[in-house]
Amino acid sequence: MKANQLYYTSCEKGLENGAGFQIKAKSNNFEKTDEIKQLGNYEPPRDYPSMPSQKELDNFPILFKYKENLFARSKYVGQDYTGRYGNFFLHGLEVDNVDIYPIDIYFWDKWVENENQVNSLNLPEIEISSIEVPELELENIEILEKIITILFTKDKKIIIKVQNQIDGINLIYFVQKAFAKMTAKTITFSTYQFTEMDCLDINIVVGDTEFEYADKSNYYYFDLTTNQYPAIQINNYTKLVIQVLKTPILLHRYHKFFEYFEVSKIDDNLVYVLELFLFIEVKYKLKSLSEILDFVANNAKKEHLKELLDKLSPMIDKITKLSDIEALLNFYIAMFSKDVIDEIYKILILLFNNTLKARYDFVKVEKFIEKLNNKNSKFESYFIPYFLKQIELDKIHLLNPDEFVLVINKLFEYYKTTNKDNQILKDIIIDYIKINKTISPNIITIFDDKEQLKFIIKISNILPKKEINEISKVFNNLYNGNEYYHKLSLMNRNNLNLYFVITSFQNKFLLAENKVSFFTEFIENVEENSEIIEWYYKNLSLQDKIKQIKSWKDKLDVLENYSFFEDIYQTINTNLFTDFRNDTEFLQLYYSKYSYIKLNTPNRFLLRDIIFDYTKLNQKIYTQINQLEQKEYIFLINSFFNQLDITSIKSTHFQYLLHQSYQEDFYDYFKNLKGRLSVKDLVKFYLDGMGEIEQKIEEILILILANQSNEVIDDLQDLVDTESKKEKLQNLVKKANKKLSWKNVSKIIKKSFPTFTKLFKRGE
Amino acid sequence: MGLFYKLKSNISKELCPYCFEYFELRDAPFRCSNPNCKVEPDPVYEKHWGSKPLKHLIKPEVSFFSGMKKSIKCDLCKEITYKKVCPHCHQTLPSTIGEYKNHIFAVIGGPDSGKSHYIAVLINQLMNEIGPKMGFMLDALDDDTRIKYRVDFYKPLFENHTILNKTLSGNTNKNTKKPLIYGLTILKNNQVVDYLTLVFFDTAGEDLNQEDTMAVVNKYIYRSDGIIMLIDPLQIVSVRNKLKGIPIPATISSQNQDILSRTTHLIKKAQNLKPTDKIDIPLAVAFTKIDAVESLLEGDYQLKHKANHKNNINIDDIEAVSSEMKALLTEWGEGSIINSVQTQYKKSKFFGLSALGTNPHNTKRVDKILPRRVEDPFLWLLYENSILK
Predict the structure, then answer these.
(1) ipTM value of the model?
(2) Which pLDDT belongs to residue A736?
(3) Are strands B226-231 and B102-109 parallel, antiparallel or unpaired?
(4) Are residues A16 and B255 in contact, defined by beta-carbon separation less than 8 angstroms?
(5) Which residues of chain B are at the A interface, by a Cβ-Cβ cutoff of 8 Å?
(6) Which residue of A has its CA nearest to B250?
(7) A259: which DSSP letter?
(8) A379, A407 in Cβ contact below 8 A?
(9) Pairing mode, if any, of strands B226-231 and B283-287?
(10) Burial class (CB in 10 A: 0-12, 13-18, 19+), A21
């Protein structure tokens, strides 16, 4: 640091007119002569010796003031050339740029202290460097904290009254060191202040001065002689920097670190630098990294940016707060350059892995990538390989469906541009679906036309129907109009899987006949694959299912040639029950002549339930049954009556039979009936009224009841809901109680039911 | 407030005893005097006097019909304040401003001519000896004056018996530019018959070394009501030669004629006078340290006697001493000063005095202060200003 010099004292001859106080000597280029004279003006403490000896003179406080680019050092020399007291010797320095801690210059060893040391009236410009500062002890921390805090507002001047000037100098020294050079140089100070006029930021007062009479409320007045200090709320910067001051190595690093920033004034922003420094050095826990990084982005010196970023880089892993990670990424995006690309990758992965832990919104990651793509269009393609290496793939299933598709989409695009086999991605998708049983319908957009269909076929096995429908909607929406699919269908006739998938997905465009005809072709060519058929069947609409069944009916002969025919029927068994219970058309199909035989054979339970199980359908069933020919009806009953176990249905059926008065077939029917109705069922029919055959039935019942336990008899009471039924039952039980012998029973049976007798003989 | 006072305050202009600018009293702002009121920067004050923590400034609303306000309520703390400040330099004005006339007296002289000692002793004499004897009272009008006089003048000289430190240049020390302001109460038969404000300026000799500096630092000179120019006879070559063997300052200053010349130029320029015009500010040319040259005064000089001012100024004595001093000056080869003074000033007198009555040159101590004729120039100036008769 180069400085122009000036000496000012009361002398007989100097550079000004006459004798007395004047500039004794100076450098030619010293400009602010008036300012330095005012700055270095010295009045001795009033309580110091008025006529001091040479020894006493050394005890007078040294005035060392720093303001802007001026340094004034005045030493009281006592007498002037006339012998009058009150003389002092000012050695002033004017520098272009202060690049040393101003307080360090206090310890400069080239200060001139009296006229006798002056050899020339023209002073050279002088180089000030390598000042040896004695080791000072950090003390008076409470006061130091207050002073540092006050400097953030500077609303009042700081006056520090001390007994020993060195205590004040010590304070100024550590106050300055609490800041970096560029900010420390904004703190003006005086190591000895006599007058209230032109106080600097920090002023040391020794002895009796004007401050004895001053209104102390106008200042932050620290009286170290009486230990009275103003109450100050210590700010965050101060609290932290005190810790740094206590560790010289750390302090040195802090000052170096500060050089990375373009900061020239003391304000709240300083705490950002300090916190960031502590974060890097001692893993200080930050309250808000985003504010700090905003500050860094706006204030870091370009020439030091790389060093700063290098220091910041290892800290990325230490950041746990998502908002901080975001802030860091935004920061790096703002600083976007090849120097920070690795950090950006690292943070993106960090965010992504946090997404995997369900702590972060993936859409935000996407937006960051968008931002980065805006910075460099190739960003994403550079990033993906890194991403694939770093990402916790085993956790990718933790992404929500939309996030997953976004990620996969990007990976697909990358694979596509690099011509890599994307099978691994497909496997990832399948794994995802297997684990989550869902996926975003947009997944379809990842694939090209042919891939789309293949993919849907593939996932159709593992995705619920609803999900597949959603996917198919997206698929359909990708294209507009039927023609395309007709064309596509025709073009792909050789690929049956594809063919039927097209059919299924085009159900909203294609007429049912078309679908069925497609499927007919499929049936003729398809390989054995019940899984696909089941899936296919599931995806038909209700109407189309009916039509498909009709179509199958026509093709039964063909179908029976295939071993998977049974599978088809089993599938239908499982599904029809739910799907067709209200479907009249289906019922009609069933009851059309002979159709039920083949159709329902593998589906007896379904048929049974459709015919008998639903009260709502009873009337329809009656209608249908009434239209049946007697043989058909009997066949029906024979086929399915084994499974009849619901009383109301049985009852309905009895009613029907009695109503029809198929007397000639009654015994056949009854033959089948025996043992398949409970005693209770039989008695119920009887109590409800059996018409012309009631008497015969009664006889049979008497015989049956005669062999029943009392519990069974008691249980019959449930059937009584009218007085007439009660009487009828009582009579029946009464008759039964007569305990007819087996022979009598045989006779009755023989007489009334010859066929029955034969059965008995056979032991059935 | 009377109509007359109101009208007076509207039309009369006052002179700030600090910056020497004229101003209308009703324009004068007030400074809050509540110690708890807000401290705020005052750029105007700072420009003139340097920075200092100052309380809130309140500017009165002024219209033609509004007269001078004696007090105002602070718009921040709502406390009443009476502290008026100069509209130009924001220095606190004497409380008597506008009510009584200001009389500014400048004390000039080369370095080491004894200005500070003279003022220190003069004020003490006026307060404690001359005042009671002649029927007037001198009181410091503000704390600054009281403290400054006590700490910088009285204590070292009268209590510690040491000579005063050099006065620092007004260029480097703004305090130097601040005057000592006193109220002078004139009594007759123990009744107050008049009151006026006296403003004393001590000047660093260095500030008279250049006319430019004088114009800036010592504006009060051309606005003053009287000038006391002190000359140290020990700095006159012929006197020094005659005094060989007696301890005198080792160095010689031959600036007296220069200072007089600069002062004259400054006043003429400022008052727009022609070279042939005479200045009507009374000039008292006083030779200090007269005790040191007593050995050169052979015969019965009136100068050797005590002045005899009782009740009224003894103008005959003044005239006699002036004549003696002129004769001595001529004898000492400094007749040119007499010519300069008489040519340029309408009213002038020559005086001889000693503030300390002893030569402290070797010891720098003044064990006993025996002032001689220090009041003469001042009383004559009061006389010329029709304050004393």
Answers:
(1) 0.82
(2) 81
(3) parallel
(4) no
(5) 35-36, 39, 49-54, 110-112, 143, 147, 151, 155-156, 160, 162-169, 171-175, 204-206, 209-210, 249-251, 253, 255, 258, 361, 364-365
(6) A82
(7) T
(8) no
(9) parallel
(10) buried
Rg value, chain B, Cα: 22
Distance between CA atoms of B273 and B280, rounded to whole angstroms? 10
User: What DSSP string describes A196-231?
Assistant: STT--SEEEEESS-GGGSS-GGGSEEEETTTTB---
Task: Compute the distance between CA of residue A701 and CA of residue A695 in angstroms, rounded to an integer.
Answer: 10
* Residue-level length of chain A: 764
Mutate which: B32, B34, B52, B154, vs A, most A CBs within 10 A: B52
pLDDT digits (tens, 9 = 90+) for B92-136: 988 888 888 888 888 888 777 888 899 999 999 999 988 888 888
Q: How many CB pairs under 8 A join A and B?
A: 123
Other CB atoms within 10 Å distance of the CB of residue A570? 15
8-state DSSP, B14: E
Instruction: Tell me the pLDDT tens digit for each residue of A296-310.
Output: 888 888 888 888 888
Name every chain A residue with its beta carbon within 8 A of the beta carbon of B209.
16-18, 20, 22
DSSP 8-class letter at A125: P
Integer CA distances (angstroms), A725 to A7, A693, B3, in order? 139, 17, 131
Pairing mode of beta strands B30-31, B57-58? antiparallel
3-state SS track over A491-507: HCCCCHHHHHHHHHHCC
Helix (H) or strand (E) holding A332: helix A322-334
Q: Is A674 helix (H, G, I), strand (E, B) or coil?
A: coil
Task: Report d(CA A205, CA A203) in Å as an integer.
Answer: 6
Beta strands, E only, B41-112: 54-55, 57-58, 72-73, 80-81, 83-84, 102-109
Quick: pLDDT tens for A460-502: 667 776 776 677 666 666 554 444 454 444 444 444 444 444 5
Are A81 and B51 inside 8 Å of each other by CB? Answer: no
Helices (H), A526-583: 530-538, 542-554, 556-559, 565-579
Helix (H) or strand (E) holding A21: strand A20-26
**Cα distance between residue A715 and residue A707, in whole Å:** 15
Q: For residues A215 and A88, is the Cβ–Cβ distance under 8 A?
A: no
Contact state of B168 with A198 under an 8 Å Cβ cutoff: no
Return d(Cα A660, Cα A641) in angstroms, integer.
18
Distance CA A383, CA A376 (A): 11
Cβ contact, residue pair A86, B165, below 8 Å: yes
B28/chain A closest Cα distance in angstroms:
23
Torsion of CA A569, A574, A579, A582, to 10 degrees: 90
Residue B110: exposed, middle, or buried by beta-carbon count in 10 A (0-12, 13-18, 19+)? buried
